[in-house]
Sequence to fold (232 residues):
Amino acid sequence: MRFKTTRFGELEVPQEGIINFPEGLLGFEKYKKYVLLPTEENSPLLWLQSTEEPDLAFIVAEPGFIVKGYEFDLPSEAREKLEVEKEEEVQVLCLLVIPEDPQQATVNLKGPLVLNLGRGLACQVVLKEDYSTRHPVFNEASVSA
Amino acid sequence: MLVLTRKKGEKIVIGDNIFVTVLEVRGDQIQLGIDAPRAITVHREEVFREIQEENIKARRASTVELQQVQKLLGARKTEGEEEGEGD
Fold:
């Protein structure tokens, strides 16, 4: 599949590389198809690029690289929507917000993306667990430690 | 908007399988019980809105900012490794 992007020019991705978000992301319900693109080698950060809107892209990360001990119960509606049979097949990514001062970057732990790449399905879930939508990526403790 | 008046213990039905019960009324606080199929997501509106707002902020990401964060993450990783792997 070929599509245009603002940041990366025209891209071609095999059909199985397309991730379907049947409900889109909150605030972006119109856009349902995305691809994951690497950023730099060995980086935990990835681009989540819309195949339908060239300018729509998010920076996402596997939360384990950013915070320790992040855990949640997979909401049952997500399990159904993503046709999850075994929890091991599920991958979790969190969205980053990077303001002008990158030290102030935050990660949304309350509304992670849950992906079942085997099925090419994903959704954004809202967790019952008490996590922040704006968890600092670089907290002072980890810098001064 | 449809407006209904309900008393404590009374319900409303949405579609044929979502039931909302007024459990408790205390001053300006109302406790609701919601019975819905598992595929239906129910959340407090403000949490929903907050995530929507974060998504909108997140989409403004630029490659320049990404590189800066990349650097900071790299620096943190090296620091962590010097301290030993932990965990």
